[in-house]
Amino acid sequence: MNIDELVKEQRAKEETYDNERTDVRNRIAHLEQRLKDMKFPHWSDMLSQIMKEVNKITEPRGIVFKTSNYRTLGLDPGILVFQDYMHSKKQMYGNLKFEFYEALFYTYDRRRIAIHSVDDIIKIIDGFEKKHEEELDETLQKYGSWEKAKEAVFNKQLYYGMVPDSEQTEDYFIECVRRGIDLCSFPAGMMTYKILEEILKEGSNKFGLYVADSEHVRNLFDKRLFDLAFEHKENISDRFSPEKLKEFGFYQHENLMKRILKFPETILEIPLNMMREDYFIQLSKCKRSLA
Q1: CA-CA distance, 110 to 203, in Å (whole number)?
Q2: What are the angstrom distances between the C-alpha of 157 and each of 43, 88, 168, 180, 226?
Q3: Mind spelling out the 3-state secondary structure of the chain?
Q4: Contact, 28 vs 50, CB < 8 A?
Q5: How many C-beta atoms lie closer than 10 Å to residue 129's C-beta?
Q6: Could you tell me which residues come within 8 angstroms of residue 258 by beta carbon, excluding any fewer than 6 positions away?
Q7: pLDDT tens digit at each of 291 positions of the chain
Q8: Which of 65, 193, 271, 287 has the most other CB atoms within 10 Å of its CB?
Q9: What are residue 176's phi and psi, to 5 degrees?
């Protein structure tokens, strides 16, 4: 085979590869549009990230979606990726999207999520659309109107300590408090003055915030804890790894008492329903100032 034939063959291969890659891009773009039409922005955002990875594909039939978001509740890193998406979808749509994400992310490993083909995604979404329509019909029949259905879904949601986008966090949780939803896993470090005021107004014991009953404790909560919370707000969720929390039995009362004395910022990680006045009294003994 002479050089011209080699060049021609190589160009043919490249053209085939480019066409396949363009086809992948087009099909993903089509899926994104379908998801936007269905008004599921989380999915569109996710597929946009997949889209960015298309240029890095080594084989046209495989797409790799990389992620470094491992923030969650103490599971292994592979599960963390799945959990993050599970919680984010539950916040708005209840259990409806669970099957979609479970099918999409079952091939994860510790550093990446592999989607074997765009056709797999299409099948998943086709199946989900059908399920979504069926469930929507059932919901509308049950509640009579879409507004009543949305209200019911909101009130039945479960919260696992996952926080929505920062700019929405305050309004979101104030609304939860007003609706009587227990913020059981809400970490103290994510608290804001407005949310605290709303909880106190509604009745602190109702929401597991037992520490607010004492004026002494409330002053600590208002001033010293909040100063630290706002100072470290950006990196609070990454302060302790799940492994470390497990290592020293983070949620055992005795360990918490010892750790607060040594590391005052520990109090920011304690979920509200586990907060006790003892911890704030212990905090007041700290030699190191919180603020």
Answers
A1: 43
A2: 19, 11, 17, 12, 28
A3: CCHHHHHHHHHHHHHHHHHHHHHHHHHHHHHHHHHHHCCCHHHHHHHHHHHHHHHHCCCCCCEEEECCCCCCCCCCHHHHHHHHHHHHHHHHHHHHHHHHHHHHHCCCCCCEEEECCHHHHHHHHHHHHHHHHHHHHHHHHHHCCHHHHHHHHHHHCCCCCCCCCHHHHHHHHHHHHHCCCCCCCCEHHHCCHHHHHHHHHHCHHHHCCHHHHCHHHHHHHHHHHHHHHHHCHHHHHHCCCHHHHHHCCCCCHHHHHHHHHHCHHHHHHCEHHHCCHHHHHHHHCCCCCCC
A4: yes
A5: 14
A6: none
A7: 566 676 677 667 666 656 655 665 666 566 656 655 554 444 444 444 544 444 343 333 333 333 333 222 222 222 223 333 333 333 333 333 333 333 333 322 323 334 444 454 555 455 545 555 565 566 667 767 656 655 554 444 323 233 344 445 566 667 666 665 545 445 565 666 676 666 666 554 444 443 334 444 455 455 555 454 444 444 333 333 444 444 444 456 777 788 777 777 677 667 655 666 677 777 777 654 444
A8: 65
A9: -60, -45
* pTM for this prediction: 0.29
Query: At which residue do the structure tokens 């696992």 appear?
Result: 160
Residues 122/27, Cβ–Cβ less than 8 Å: yes
Angle at 165 between CA 68 and CA 41, to 5 degrees: 80
Partners of 66 in beta bridges: 112
